[in-house]
Amino acid sequence: MAGRPDSPASHVRSLIVIAVVAAALVAAFAYTAGWLSPGRLTPAKIVDSLAPPGGPALGFRRNHAKGICFTGEFESNGAAAQLSKARMFAAGTYPVTGRFNLATPDAKASDAMARVRGLSLRIVMPDGSEWRSAMIDAPVFPVATPQAFFELQRALAHKDDPNAMKTFAAAHPEIGAFGKWAGSAPWTASYAEERYNSLNSFVFTNADGKDETVRWSFVPAATPENVSADDLKKRGADFLGADITQRVGSAPQRWSMVVTIANPGDPTADPSKAWGDDRRSVEAGMLVVKAIEAEPDGPCRDLNFDPTILPPGMRVSDDPFPAARSAAYSVSFNRRTAEDKDYPRTAAQGAK
Ligand code: HEM
């Protein structure tokens, strides 16, 4: 039988209920922060693992820290509407903000030292939806899972221990395909001559509700010219930025967006595995880069190219990377925006 609402027993019961709710809240916070499972990989730990020995470049992205911002358009030809009802695939022209970048946490890296180059895009559609993507020029990712990406950073951090990478590679043989590309693919002297690949897979849904799992690439209109790695080292630290500024200054630069559709049984959850070259593909339209924008204090500065920001008609697949990337990019974004006072206001300050 329940006691009277103002009886001592009822007060004790209320206090117990409050204590239980408070304890549950503390436990939930502790779980989210990883305090209950110190071995669990958290977004903060994965971002910490990217920092170079001297600590991160304050105010900068925690990876792909060096880059150059641009604006332009996506000219959709309408062909990919058969795959996705996303507004950007209806024939038309949509504004783009993007960024060419290098896969390094070092904001002052010499361009010739970064093997992997990236392209980040944000397309805003008239219905208010938007698409963000961050791609790289490697044909495969070095590792199969976010956990392995973390372990790779830890192995790379042990530069003085030749066994660290050997042990890692023995446990993660999938890194062989990336290693082969990194060691043998020709270098170019221009962001404009690179093909950029999503590597992660996503699900497209068309107006009839039909799903397809896809990856996409941006294929350059410019013909790649091979330049030796030694020649690139002689070109100064910032030749990529100078080259793309000069090219875009003389003519818009173009890439064709190619959407590749998985065959049944393709490894959709593993970006370290390529799909065969014979997969069906659809050319969706052209990225046209029209103007180079200031990197310090320009329109990319406060943009997080989170690969899970997708319009209706696209969604994440069984690939675990986009969710892990989203969480890590958010930590990086929060850290770098909190360090605003350390971020350069001008290109000259950025070069110091
Ligand atoms: C678990 C795996 C990964 C982690 C932890 C990671 C981490 C990061 C972080 C922390 C940033 C900086 C974000 C910001 O401050 O805005 C970044 C940027 C970037 N990442 Fe990743 N990344 C991962 C996988 C990938 C993959 C698979 C690709 C491409 C296929 C990729 C391409 C890029 C690019 C192009 C940027 C530059 C984005 C920009 O211009 O803001 N990353 N990454």
UniProtKB/TrEMBL annotation:
Broad enzyme group: oxidoreductase
Keyword annotations of the record: Heme, Iron, Membrane, Metal-binding, Oxidoreductase, Peroxidase, Transmembrane, Transmembrane helix
GO CC terms: cytoplasm
CDD domains named among the record's database cross-references: srpA_like
Cofactor requirements of the protein: heme
PROSITE patterns reported in the protein's UniProt record: CATALASE_3 (PS51402)
Membrane-spanning ranges: 12-36
Catalytic site positions: 64
GO biological process: hydrogen peroxide catabolic process; response to hydrogen peroxide
EC number: 1.11.1.-
SMART domains (UniProt xref): Catalase
Claim: Transmembrane helix is one of the keywords in the record: yes
Gene Ontology terms, MF aspect: catalase activity; heme binding; metal ion binding
Residue sites binding heme per the record: 329
Residues in Catalase core domain copies: 19-352
Top-rank taxon: Bacteria
SUPFAM superfamilies hit by this protein: Heme-dependent catalase-like
Protein family membership: Belongs to the catalase family.
Role this protein plays: Has an organic peroxide-dependent peroxidase activity. Decomposes hydrogen peroxide into water and oxygen; serves to protect cells from the toxic effects of hydrogen peroxide.
Protein name per UniProt: Catalase-related peroxidase
Species, as recorded: Caballeronia telluris
